[in-house]
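Q&A FORM
Asked by: J.P.
Topic: structure of RteC domain-containing protein

PROVIDED:
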Amino acid sequence: MKNFALKLNQELNKKLKQIHNQNSCELQLAKQAIITTQKTILELKKYCETYEFSSKSEEIDFFKNIKPQFISKLIYYNEMFNIEVNKPSTTKHQTKYYKKEIKKIEKFFIQNKESYKYYRTGETSLDKNFFIRKKFDITLTIENIQSCYDDNFNTTHDYTIAKIIAYETLLQYLSAKSNPNAKTNESKKKVKWTAPKVAFVELIYALHAEGVINNGKISLNELAQKMEQVFDIELSQHSRIFYEIRSRKTIQKTNFLNTLSDKLNYKMDQADG
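REPLIED BY: S.T.
REPLY: Here is the structure written out as tokens.
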């Protein structure tokens, strides 16, 4: 399941990137992204209908970490579409409008602070209640009404996690919209990865292996996507590059990481005189 889902997510991200590149109109962008994401989620759902999880742990991982990555995109583009289609016509009123939408999201995080804390701190104690199908408990807060429609593809909290992910991204979108000058200044400060891609892959896999991002509760694919955004680099086949790194005919396979260590030690020696 995990390999299928990761490949599906990579394909979706590639399609969404093309949609962003081809559309300057946000409404058109959102509409196309919604259609594309819905089709992908349908593929995931059909696969899930015939797939038997090998363990409870695999099922929890799917509904806690994998499925929300897909649903969050649908929530995000739906929210974007609704926000843009209802925005005022004048720039002055638009700024106030976007700030009002920001307050709505902040209210959501306050109302769901326990779920947010549970997910972002990597808690696992209630995973069997939150991310196993047909474990509905009326005493639990069920934000996901759609769970009632298909209990084979929903748990009590996977939609809430998806909404948290979506709203974090939406908050960035609205912050830029409410302060366009800040967005311009931020774009001027953009950093770009200028070393070879293979070095970039070494760094990503090392960070993931050490579990230093989100307490290790982040998929390799998601980490790669975030790093691509930060360093303005496209990396569609990191697994293939990693295989090439593993195949190196040397004792020390991590050339870039070794170089980083050597350079840092040299710099510290210089500083020590």
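FOLLOW-UP: Residues 190-273 form one domain.
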